[in-house]
What does this fold into?
Amino acid sequence: MNRLQQLFRDKKDICSVYFTAGYPNIDDTLPVLKALEDAGTDLVELGMPFSDPLADGPTIQASSEQALENGMSIKRLFEQIKDMRQTISMPVVLMGYFNPVFKYGIENFIAKCKEVGVDGLILPDLPFDEYREKYLELFEEAGIANIFLITPQTSDERIKLIDANSNGFIYVVSSASVTGAKKEVEQGQINYFNRVNNIGLQSPRLIGFGISNRSTFKTACQHASGAIIGSAFVKLIGEHGAEGSKIEEFIKSIK
Amino acid sequence: MSTRNKYQADENGMYGQFGGAYIPEMLYPNIENLKAVYEDIIGSAAFQQEYKSLLKDYVGRPSPLYLAKRLSEKYQTNIYLKREDLNHTGAHKINNTVGQILIAKHMGKERIIAETGAGQHGVASATACALMGLKCVVYMGEVDIKRQAPNVARMKMLGAEVKAATSGSRTLKDATNEALRDWICNPEDTFYLIGSVVGPHPYPDMVARLQAVISEEIKQQISEKTNKDYPDYVIACVGGGSNAAGSFYHFLDDERVKLVAVEASGMGVDSGETAATIALGDMGIIHGSKTYLMQSDDGQITEPYSISAGLDYPGIGPQHAHLFDTNRAQFLSATDKEALDAALQLTQLEGIIPALESSHALAALDKMTFSENDSVVITLSGRGDKDMATYMERFGF
It folds into this structure.
């Protein structure tokens, strides 16, 4: 049983955090990761910055831009996290756009993920069909979960197809929006969460986009295994860097 | 409607190894929805009738195919200019926006979003929206808004809202990202009107079909003006590549016609200040499409440079990438200087001030050799009014 499977078996109300690698300072990646683990975070999505993050709102865009200005790259990221498994035991998933991974070389990328102990990948613009035809085997052999997104506009039929090809969890995008856009959970979103829950999926789900505080986190947890906080946390480290006490305070304020 | 051939997109929008739809799930239903209807709409009698009538009476088509005698004399051949510069709004862009607006209306969409670099596609979009009474939002890089004040004013006068893209390099690619973000947030009522043969499938194919009227007319006109029913060469500039795609469309299967695409190499292909995507030849994914693009070793998309804002795009349409890979089209590049020289030459030999984009196609004349019996068609994609500030500065008028 891998780290992701174990997490979803043992825990509910999973508190998952996204942050951009190399932000606010290039070498903050590992200290932030460590502070998150110490604060009781259950899972981390580590963002690989990209020049053209078209599914992201202003906060994550700005963090990506800053990280790239800092000199962040995939190569540098793998250097930063090469020994992370000596100190980090929670699952870590890399999240980013497909082009830098394609440029790095997918085989090399997957091999590197396995080597450093990355548990899964979220590549929102890698088409589902292309993954299934070209890369599924590669991911499965390496034991790397590929995590897909679904949205309120995704049909039941497609959700089932995605579920059948998922081996980590499904990322439930909470509304038709880019990251960071909403402040509270609305009735229409609850209806959508209920629709998804009634399909009878095998994969666990985490809800993300617009989850920013205890209230939105708790509401999301009623409808999934847990939730993902992104922009709100990126804002925090933008102000306070990798400061452990601030990160602990933040996670405590959510859970 | 033409049938698919080996140079056209397959049902997944692939041109050989290029194209496709590399989009996040949030855009998937929008794209699927458009993919399901666009061919039927374009093929329908109602669409064709309305589209053709607007092209004729509103855009002013067919655009002339003009035998440029003095230019021909200089190059000892027969050069025909396809006068897209004479269209309403001054460029080929309007062929596409009028067509997509009709598709949007057929789909029941009420709000149009568009991206623009120099503002030409933005103006053409705002024009079509004014014509149809639809709400129009144009995304434009903050840097471009400052550089292109007259076009910003035109869009506003036409009733469009111009929104500044303030992220990244604040130019065309970032305006495209902003438009895509808007579409993610407004999937139900909004139609994204892309200005070139770029973006996720079905955009490259849809835009090419709407620009295909250029080659349809060339074919007709060349047979009226010469003793052959095909030209020996068709030459067009490429940034994203919509005027080239339209100029080539009906000749793709006719291997007698040599197709020539001219990229903008800015200060030179190896200068680091260039937009010659094919010449640099690095494959990747940009704005939902697999194609050649300009990127760093880490896969970050880099900012292109050209004196011509319309060619200043770090990618190229996937069909062009495929035409390059299969050797169906020859790809050349012209520098800022060569384009400026070609602009001045055309102006003084023929009394036509071309757009800087089109001047890159004209610059190919000095890079090729023709026989005296050849008929050489060059697409003059736009007129030079918008470039007068650059011409004044560079030529000191």
Observations:
- The mean pLDDT of chain B is 96.
- The first strand of chain B starts at residue 14 and ends at 15.
- Chain B touches chain A through 35 residues (CB under 8 Å).
- Residues 296 and 302 of chain B are 6 Å apart (CA to CA).
